[in-house]
């Protein structure tokens, strides 16, 4: 058992950078820039991959769900490993750097994979392994570099910069495709070059922060013992249950493409609708979470996703509903992504911060892997609209149960 209040984070270095970044540490901004460049790279691939797999290689929804589930679930165990090693070695930056480097190299792997679905699956799994290794240490660095009362704002700033990259990535992919006359290998190589810049930024500008416990105290048993703390256990459990009830991004965009017959040329632009809403909302929603409570905001974000799914399976195919669904998808991310880490961070002692956050992220990743497979199966057996309706109903029920259960104190 532990008392989180006894493990205060290292004093952050504050900077005055305007209304959105005031009192946010320079380390958080540097990590945000690393994520920005990394997301340009990853979204260049993500923007074209669903259409390439489904329309180009002819995968059905169940096959795509299995591959998408592998893409999401490959991070699960590695998140735990990355968090554990970072805390045990007290080298958050080094472990994160290995993850960023592995993901960069995997962009070259896509060049070698060609049109082989099996090879693409292996490369995507390796890419997500890199993400799994880096996510826990990175979020621990953000948490340890921030004042406890400003965690929502700090994660909001980081996710805002991250989303700028997500916004620019599809545009960069379209530009490369246009200049290369539709060459996917050119997109993959350009993505590798951009990812390499992100690794360089991490090495030059991010400062490491060591935990406050001895290495011997960082163990698998210590990670399991974190779940004895009631609030942390509830955060981890509900994050997993809600993850199981969500629908993956790729399915949301494929559903939009099918319902509104979006031309293949414009498919890579669909994530920009999500990013365009997420971008201006991440910091204000993070500040709101600091003020009124992070858990209510987290649940409200899932309610927004439920509303988006209802629009996708509604009887009317009005174009305005597509725009609104993308907007609600952006609200979902603004209210959940960084807010969950801000809620979990203070519940974990500083020396186990990466491990604790990785426990939450692992449960969520496993749940989302299962969600992708189940939704792909549902789409294959029932059709798109019934599958969306079932998913929206399940998410609504889970959000209501979570809202009326014992509240998490964050």
How would you sum up this structure, described in words?
The chain is globular, with a radius of gyration of 20 Å. The chain is mainly alpha-helical. The protein has helices at residues 26-56, 61-73, 75-89, 92-113, 117-144, 151-179, 184-205, 220-226, 230-245, 249-259, 270-292, 294-312, 319-344, 353-382, 384-404; strands spanning 14-15, 24-25. The protein has a two-stranded antiparallel sheet with strand order 1-2. It has a single domain (20-207, 219-404), classed as Growth Hormone, Chain: A, CATH 1.20.1250. The chain is 76% helix and 1% strand. A hairpin with an 8-residue loop joins strand 1 (14-15) and strand 2. Mean pLDDT is 83; it is low at 1-20 and 212-216. It holds the Pfam family MFS_1. Residues 217-410 form the Major facilitator superfamily (MFS) profile domain.
Query: Which blocks of ≥5 consecutive residues have pLDDT under 50?
Result: 1-20, 212-216
Query: Percentage of helical residues?
Result: over 70%
* Morphology: globular
Strand content: under 5%
Q: Say what the CATH topology is.
A: Growth Hormone, Chain: A
CATH-level-2 architecture: Up-down Bundle
| Mean of all residue-level pLDDT scores | 83
What is the total number of structural domains?
Answer: 1
SSE string, helices as H and strands as E: EEHHHHHHHHHHHHHHH
Distance between the termini: 18 Å
Number of helices: 15
The total count of strands amounts to 2
Roughly how many Å is the radius of gyration? Answer: 20 Å
Helix-and-strand structural type: mainly alpha
Based on the model shown, name its key terms.
Growth Hormone, Chain: A, globular, two-stranded antiparallel sheet, MFS_dom, 410 residues, MFS, disordered N terminus, 15 helices
């Amino acid at each position: 058992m532990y008392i989180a209040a006894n493990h205060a984070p290292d004093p952050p270095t504050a900077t005055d950078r305007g209304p959105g970044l005031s009192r946010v540490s320079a380390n958080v901004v540097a990590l945000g820039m690393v994520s920005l460049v990394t997301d340009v790279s990853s979204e260049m691939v993500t923007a074209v991959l669903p259409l390439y797999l489904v329309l180009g290689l002819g995968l059905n929804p169940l096959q795509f769900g299995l591959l998408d589930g592998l893409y999401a679930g490959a991070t699960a165990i590695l998140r735990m490993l990355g968090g554990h090693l970072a805390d045990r070695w007290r080298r958050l930056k080094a472990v994160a750097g290995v993850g960023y480097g592995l993901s960069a190299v995997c962009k070259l792997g896509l060049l070698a994979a060609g049109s082989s679905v099996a090879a693409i699956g292996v490369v995507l799994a390796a890419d997500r392994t890199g993400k799994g290794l880096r996510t826990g240490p990175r979020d621990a660095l953000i948490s340890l570099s921030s004042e406890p009362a400003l965690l929502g704002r700090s994660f909001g700033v980081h996710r805002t910069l991250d989303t700028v990259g997500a916004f620019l990535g599809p545009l960069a992919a379209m530009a490369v495709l246009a200049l290369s006359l539709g060459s996917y290998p050119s997109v993959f190589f350009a993505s590798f070059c951009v990812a390499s810049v992100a690794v360089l930024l991490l090495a030059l500008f991010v400062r490491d922060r060591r935990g406050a416990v001895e290495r011997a105290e960082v163990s698998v048993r210590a990670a399991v013992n974190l779940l004895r703390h009631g609030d942390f256990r509830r955060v981890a459990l509900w994050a997993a249950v809600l993850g199981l009830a969500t629908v993956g991004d790729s399915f949301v965009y494929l559903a939009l493409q099918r319902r509104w017959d979006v031309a293949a040329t414009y498919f890579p632009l669909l994530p920009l609708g999500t990013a365009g809403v997420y971008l201006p909302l991440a910091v204000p929603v993070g500040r709101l979470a600091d003020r009124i409570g992070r858990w209510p905001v987290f649940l409200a974000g899932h309610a927004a996703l439920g509303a988006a799914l209802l629009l996708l399976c509604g009887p009317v195919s009005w174009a305005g509903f597509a725009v609104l669904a993308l907007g609600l998808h952006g609200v979902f991310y603004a209210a959940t992504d960084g807010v969950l880490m801000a809620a979990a961070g203070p519940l974990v002692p500083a020396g186990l911060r990466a491990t604790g956050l990785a426990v939450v992220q692992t449960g969520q990743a496993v749940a989302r892997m299962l969600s992708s497979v189940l939704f792909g199966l549902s789409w294959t057996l029932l059709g798109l609209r019934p599958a969306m309706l079932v998913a929206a109903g399940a998410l609504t029920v889970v959000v209501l149960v979570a809202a009326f259960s014992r509240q998490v104190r964050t």
